[in-house]
Write the structure tokens for this entry.
Amino acid sequence: MKVMVVGASGMLGSQVMKLLGKNGIGFDLPDFDITDFDCTTATVKSIKPDVILNTSAITDVDYCEKNRDAAEGVHHTGVRNLAATGIRLVTVSTDQVFTNSAGNRYLLESDLTEPANFYAISKLRGEKAALEYSENTVVRTSWLFGEKGLLPWIVGKLLGDGVVTAVVDQTSCLTSVVSLAEILVGMTTDKDKTGLYHCVNKGAVTPYEIACRVRDRIGSGTVKRTEWAQLALPAPRPVWSALGSERDIKLPPLEEVMELCLQKML
Ligand SMILES: NC(=O)c1ccc[n+]([C@@H]2O[C@H](COP(=O)([O-])OP(=O)(O)OC[C@H]3O[C@@H](n4cnc5c(N)ncnc54)[C@H](OP(=O)(O)O)[C@@H]3O)[C@@H](O)[C@H]2O)c1
């Protein structure tokens, strides 16, 4: 099994590469750019992978809001270029295809999307490009953390300054890259896992609630509340985008992966 991993130097991509070992062949900027159709086609032809696993993205949603061509290029054109190679594609998307301010329930694969910002609009277009081919797989996830990400950032702030300011008006699910990478690697060998999947460590939380839990676990520190409007950032954030799934894949619960991360960091 030969898996071509795109975005291999990123947070999720590097974890996937670790798990794949000699079965993984990693590609990333600046040597490989999925927005370049000729480069993508030629590279795939010469590598002849069994599967392409795409973890590439521009995850700075404010940058995407202001640089729409760049976001469209990586999240839509790039995914379309990978799908057009005819090799089975597993590609990663986002909970931000939902805003669902009225919902307040776990959002399923069959729920109607309502992108929160341009990052999500471009990711949704990429999903559609991938799913034009019945053998492909799209995995939506949210708030990834490994050595970086929201949870380590909160822990770092509380251990360092002793103070963290976190928003109260966005609810989603944290997801460990370790949990997600295991699922993605499993999908590369299982040709029946096609179509759309929601993969998160279940447990709907706000960043403020996560920070309070970490403070209680550490036993010290101050958590201050804020709201997105006070931060005046370019991209709107979803109010509620906690993912659930009606499909056959389950990740460990949030409490379990949070505790593992905290044990490593404390
Ligand atoms: N991080 C989150 O909280 C989160 C939440 C929901 C969904 N996701 C999704 O999960 C996936 C993995 O995210 P991540 O946090 O691991 O992202 P990441 O750490 O930013 O890694 C993404 C990688 O893709 C590369 N890349 C960007 N444009 C490219 C291009 N045109 N061609 C080839 N490679 C390119 C980046 O290179 P440069 O660094 O040089 O730009 C980077 O190495 C993405 O699909 C993301 O949308 C992430």
About this structure: Residues 6-7, 9-13, 28-29, 32-35, 55-59, 74, 78, 92, 94, 141-144, 149 surround NAP (CB under 6 Å).
